[in-house]
Amino acid sequence: MTTELLGILFIFAMTVALSIPLGRYMARLYAGESTFLDAVFGPIERLFFRASGIDASREMTWKDHLKALLTINLIWFLWAMFVLTNQSWLPWNPDGNPDMTPDLAFNTAISFLVNCNLQHYSGETGVSYFSQIFCLNFLQFVSAGTGMAAAVVIFKAIRDRQTTELGNFYDFFLKSCTRVLLPLSLIVAIVLVFNGTPMNLVGKAEYTSLQGDTVQVSQGPAAAMIAIKHIGTNGGGYFGANSAHPLENPNYLTMIVELLAQTVIPLGMIFAMGFYIRNRRFSRMVFGVMTVGFLLLLAPTVWSEIQGNPAIDRLGIAQTHGAMEGKEVRFGATASAYWSIITTVISTGSVNSMHDSTMPLSGAMELLSMMTNAFYGGCGAGILNFYIFIILAVFISGLMVGRTPEFMGKKVEAREMKIAMIVALVHPLMIMTGTAIASYLASADANMGWWFVNAEGQPNHATAWLNNPGFHGFSEMLYEFTSSSANNGSGFEGLGDNNPFWNISTGICLILTRFLPIIGPVAIAGLLASKKYIPESAGTLRTDTGTFGIMVFAVIVILAALSFFPALALGPLAEYFSL
Amino acid sequence: MKTHFWPALKLTAFSILFFSVVYPAIVWAVAQLSPTGGNVEWVKKGDQVVGAKLLGQSFTDERFFLGRPSAVGYNAAGSAGSNKGPSNPDYLKEVQARIDTFLVHNPGVKRSDVPADLVTASGSGLDPDISPEAALVQVPRIARLRGVSPEKLQKLVEAHTSRSAIGGVATVNVLELNLAL
């Protein structure tokens, strides 16, 4: 166990060590300074912009940014819907997989558009190779690029003191995709193919096993997608079992690479912010708060997975390697526990073990990671979410000392606070109302009619979507809405979620919880940037200190605890105390 | 919205070309240089393909080392875990039954020596490995059924045990071990 603990310590240290230089590089990139990839990508980007009729040097206001962002996202959504509902006749479908139903296509298109990757289908049977590459793999790049572009608007708004010119959306977006996501994805994909992950266009293979069974093997263009699913913190797996699948994650080394891949940009963005706004103390404060939160979530998870399942202990067998249900031997319980918290704090949502089978305390921590939705976070989205918490903390501490709240020399007033509150409340609102409706239906065992039919086309009753009874069943529904609302994409996958009820309800949840947390912070940053700059004085509340860090942490804890504790008590905590 | 529509549409077309054609093509081209050429690494017995190195397969014949229970019956056309929660009573009965079956088929093995990975399903349903303990606990049975010495089998298990350089997780590839029998 000690070597396994040292293993995850090593992985975390590696992540931090890699993300600092990456942050420095991204800060230079977004500031328009020269970088070593200019020679390769400069001409390509200029060609794309010229051919698309885009002047990438035109400065945009925050409203222009949002218009451009939302328009191009709408186009991507329509493209994704077209591909997914027509994949049966489109090329590269060697396994003859059928078109998606409209509700599943809606859920899948939205889910990949918003960087969530909920996946109510299984890769082997639900999509063609064309859909994997031209729809899902494509959206994994551009949705990550969108989040990063929105975060850079905030960087620029903070740095430029008093301005309405906040850079160009297309410029930030395309640079994020070509100069950050693409090179990193190439590295990861190459590591994967050299470790046995397939990258071909061949359909299912068949062989006869050693004892004579006929077995089929799904394959295809997996490596490319698995790389960007982590680099872009998307999490949507090529195969159904995601990164627990031996072809998707062949060994401990690839597991390290996939873990580094999903953590390096979110951490890098934090450091990039410090370099960009020329206040590294501020990004150290942010990193400190996030790391404390992360470690507090990690420790109980690792502990409970190493302990194993008490109910299995009572059966009298040896759990020397911890809780093994839903886990792969090559990763072990410790690294799987580490992954389960990394993937939930960072909104990746890829899994290397099945979260539905993790211990109750681990389930509670995975849920809490997504409920707080503040530690590290996804590509760009992490900064956007944290920005709201900073604004809230500035406001509350301003009131406590009896001064007008200020952030980086700008007065935070009623309008900004209203926006911040809407964004802060949409997350618990979506989780709570969604879970309440689903668990009401399940407790009444309602006849679901068209919303949930079984394989024979007959209406199902609501409890049929649960894979586990009791408290754990409640957790399955809570997890699904929490994961949707945090744009995470992992799941308690026992839940029967490929039906109109879950596809449509979580789809709507995904739209709101992606775009409001982009619109809100960008609007606040834009509004603040246009205000008069007030130079620092003795009475200024400094936001780059440890004291302010504690304040932000307290705001996060209070908000999360007040909103979510009752739900956690009914689900994983009740299961923990009854086990 | 309108001023952005056409530029955004054109940029989308170029992005698709770049990220869905050029990028996968580069990965595919590099994959051709890898030992497996971008394909699944097959395991052969003689010149007959009997499995894939990374994919577990079902062993029910007692003369072989058995792998872990699988939620998909080791058919790699799909992949899934059981998704059973730790407190699910039906699940716990199932584990109990697996333990009992194992003890019946492996007389002399103490209940407290049965490793958890042998009676719990993996996340993918295709786990190619078991822990060294899970292999060693099966040695007496296989030695008896095959009429070979337990010491020889133990050495074989040790030879097929690999440890990750970082983290030190020990695994035994079941297919390769069984091929070596």
Automatic annotation (TrEMBL), chain A:
It is a multi-pass membrane protein. Keywords: Cell membrane, Ion transport, Membrane, Potassium, Potassium transport, Transmembrane, Transmembrane helix, Transport. The keyword Ion transport applies. The chain crosses the membrane at residues 6-27, 68-90, 129-155, 176-194, 252-273, 285-303, 375-399, 419-442, 501-528, 548-569. The keyword Metal-binding does not apply. It comes from the Bacteria. It is found in: Cell membrane. GO terms for cellular component: plasma membrane. Coiled coil: none annotated. Pfam families: KdpA. GO terms for molecular function: P-type potassium transmembrane transporter activity; potassium ion binding. The system is composed of three essential subunits: KdpA, KdpB and KdpC. Belongs to the KdpA family. Part of the high-affinity ATP-driven potassium transport (or Kdp) system, which catalyzes the hydrolysis of ATP coupled with the electrogenic transport of potassium into the cytoplasm. This subunit binds the extracellular potassium ions and delivers the ions to the membrane domain of KdpB through an intramembrane tunnel. This is Potassium-transporting ATPase potassium-binding subunit. It comes from Siphonobacter aquaeclarae. The gene is kdpA.
UniProtKB/TrEMBL annotation, chain B:
This is Potassium-transporting ATPase KdpC subunit. InterPro entries: KdpC. It is found in: Cell membrane. The system is composed of three essential subunits: KdpA, KdpB and KdpC. Keywords: ATP-binding, Cell membrane, Ion transport, Membrane, Nucleotide-binding, Potassium, Potassium transport, Transmembrane, Transmembrane helix, Transport. It comes from Siphonobacter aquaeclarae. The keyword ATP-binding applies. It is a single-pass membrane protein. Belongs to the KdpC family. GO terms for molecular function: ATP binding; P-type potassium transmembrane transporter activity. It comes from the Bacteria.
